Amino acid sequence: FDRFCFGLEPQTQGRFTSTTSAIKPQIENTTAKAAKESKTFQAIQEERREQAERSVLISCPPKINEKKFLDYLSKHGTVNNHFFYNSYGAYAVVEFSSRDSIASLKESTNIPAVEHEAAVPFKSRLLSLKWPGSQSSNQPMPKFKNQSPPSIGEITQLLTEKDSIDEQLQSLTEALQLTEENVSLRFLVCSLLQDIAGAYFPECIIRPFGSTVNSFGKLGCDVDMILDLDGIYATSQKKGSGLSLEYQVKRGASERAVTQSILSVIGKCVDQFGPGCVGVQNILQARCPLVRFAHQPSGFQCDLTANNRVAMKSSELLFLYGQLDPRVRHLVFSVRCWARAHSITSSIPGAWITNFSLTVMVVFFLQQRNPPILPTLDRLKELAGPSDKCVIEGNDCTIVSDLSKITLQQNTDTLEKLLQEFFEFYGNFPFNKASINIRKVSHPPTTRASMRKLPEDAADVLANPLQTPTRGQCGREQTKPETTALYIQNPFETTLNVSKNVNGTQLERFVALCRESAWLLQQKEILNRSSVSPWGFAALLLPSVTSGTGVKSRRKRKLEPASSRIKNLLDSLKIKGGETVAKKGSE
Ligand code: GTP
Ligand code: MG
Predict the structure, then answer these.
(1) What number is the ipTM of this complex?
(2) What is the separation of C-alpha 388 from the centre of its chain, rounded to a whole number of angstroms?
(3) Which atom of ligand 1 is least distant from the CA of 303?
(4) Percent of the chain scoring above 70 in pLDDT
(5) Nearest CA to 426 among 484, 488, 347, 481?
(6) Which listed ligand is nearest to 318 at the C-alpha?
(7) Strand duo 126-128 + 55-60: pairing
(8) How many CA atoms lie within 13 A of 488 on its CB side?
(9) Are 284 and 300 contacting, i.e. CB atoms less than 8 angstroms apart?
(10) CA–CA separation, 457 vs 453, rounded Å?
(11) Vertex 324: Cα angle to 322 and 325 (nearest 5)
(12) How much is the pTM?
């Protein structure tokens, strides 16, 4: 993409005269700070979006002299924040305090002359610094911020060193969650894309949604984006001038057809003129049409959708749940990590459970605690103020935006208990007849005594994961409206099932793994840090012996007698001080 980058000229003087003393090297955690200040989801997103509009992305020489670099940039204005990272080369994200600095910086750029190639003259905010700015021996190298998640091996190592399961789950969240810098980079990539889409729709906004903003994002997850044209509709509807746009608008057969045609031209633009955008695919026939591409300078896989306001509202809902109690995020990160380690989820679309579905399942489980840890979606609607009213395509998506209005009940369950009971809950959930609905929670099912009876019952329970045990069962979950294996009601489009794609085999694997993990968490050896390694949650990430590898290999495993499988489970862990029969966690 080099030919689309603009080189920076070091000798050019900018319009501004500030010095590096104005530079703040530390980036404050905006989301955490905003959440503490009880800012609404929208306010946090706006703040980040505005920061991104004042930022540039600069490809740098690997041995960059940070001080010289900042001295040079500050000639164009005050630099608020900056950081370096590596993604097939060194890059810097630089946030100025004013957008004027970007105009000044762009003025000083030149279009690179490359022999045998011609450049598309589009002045983007992705710049390339050719000037060496070489490192002198007494200059420390800048710190490069990591943008990748730790491997399973590194996670196992980290967890093994902790003293309790609660500590393990907390440190897992810290290790996997998006960093402040990574979120800034995600917003910047959206903002860069907005510059391209702005060629067609000058008033458009490209907003991130999904795990970038819902507080459950893991380093390395994709960037889901929405091309938001609502501002254009809103401003043109307010004016009662009697004039309406006629010759400037074209009509489509349906809203879907319009969305498809908009995305198809934007996809083409991204492909032809998007600096660093490669592998552009128009996936316009999907239920939710999208343009997929890789943004090389950031290393992000991006999915651009349009007319997808419900998905943004779902992201806000999950964000809200994540802010209400720290245990929510810890449990979601742990369950997602566990599911990924066992190939219950995959980055490839298919019949597997998605991270979104898993998160809704955790929310549902936490709503069913006694006392509940999370309120129902209907309760969030009751607490909403007039300005929170939101109806999208006939669906009432109203939820309270002011977190301080929500009163929670006292529940002191430890993370260890919640994790154990999550596995018991779904290891025994009557999936064959009940659906999961976070809007209205019916009477909680009692904790099934049958799980406690493992391993005596293990033969039956593990051999028939979808057959609901009869003993100890008295839940009144909502009856399933259709015959799909897993029914999770879409929170806002209540006639839809978010897990319609999941087939019986994948659900069976999930249930079998829940049972296995519930059982493992009842074993003293697993809970005792000094008896096995890896121990606690790390032991749950080891390859399963009761369930096939699913996504990787769909070959059905022949079920062995439960007793020998259970023995294998324990054997698969390394007994400290004893014989080594360890199975290594897959990387
Ligand atoms: P990652 O796996 O980390 O990317 O999680 P994610 O939450 O970003 O999921 P994904 O990229 O698959 O989808 C992005 C967003 O689209 C989700 O957060 C939801 O808001 C929404 N979404 C995904 N799948 C569904 C679905 O089946 N139904 C509905 N209504 N929304 C969905
Ligand atoms: Mg996503």
Answers:
(1) 0.96
(2) 24
(3) 11
(4) 76
(5) 488
(6) 1
(7) parallel
(8) 23
(9) no
(10) 6
(11) 85
(12) 0.85
| Segment 447-498, tens digit of pLDDT | 444 444 444 444 444 445 555 443 333 334 577 887 899 999 999 999 999 9
- The model's pLDDT over 167-218, given as tens digits with 9 standing for 90+, comes to 999 999 999 999 999 999 999 999 999 999 998 888 899 999 999 999 999 9
Beta strands 300-306 and 223-228: pairing type? parallel
Under DSSP, the state recorded for 79 is: E
Residue 2: what pLDDT?
38
Q: Which residues of the chain have pLDDT under 70?
A: 1-37, 131-139, 233-241, 244-250, 442-477, 545-587
Q: Which atom belonging to ligand 1 lies closest to the Cα atom of 212?
A: 8
470: its two tokens: 């009869």
- 151 CA from centroid of ligand 1 (Å): 23
Q: At 67, give phi and psi (nearest 5°).
A: -65, -45
Would you state the structure tokens that stand for residue 32, as one six-digit string? 């955490």
* Confidence at residue 205, expressed as pLDDT on a 0 to 100 scale: 96
Q: Given this model, what pLDDT does residue 27 score?
A: 38
Taking CB atoms and a 6 Å cutoff, what residues make up the pocket around ligand 1? 209-211, 214, 217-218, 221-222, 224, 311, 314-315, 354-356, 490, 498
**Ligand 1 centre and the CA of 312: distance in Å?**
10
Q: Is 400 helix (H, G, I), strand (E, B) or coil?
A: coil
Cα of 551 from ligand 2 centre, angstroms: 19
β-strands 205-209, 126-128 pairing: unpaired
One-letter amino acid of 194? Q
Ligand 1 atom nearest the C-alpha of 355 is 2
Q: Could you tell me if 182 and 14 are in contact, meaning their C-beta atoms sit under 8 angstroms apart?
A: no
CA 259 from centroid of its chain's CA atoms: 24
CA-closest residue to ligand 1 atom 30 = 490
Tell me, in angstroms, the distance from the centre of ligand 1 to residue 354's CA. 8
**What does the DSSP assignment read for 235-259?**
HHHH--SS----TT----SSHHHHH
Compute φ and ψ for 292, nearest 5 degrees.
-110, 135
Q: Of 252, 251, 209, 214, whose CA–CA distance to 228 is shortest?
A: 209
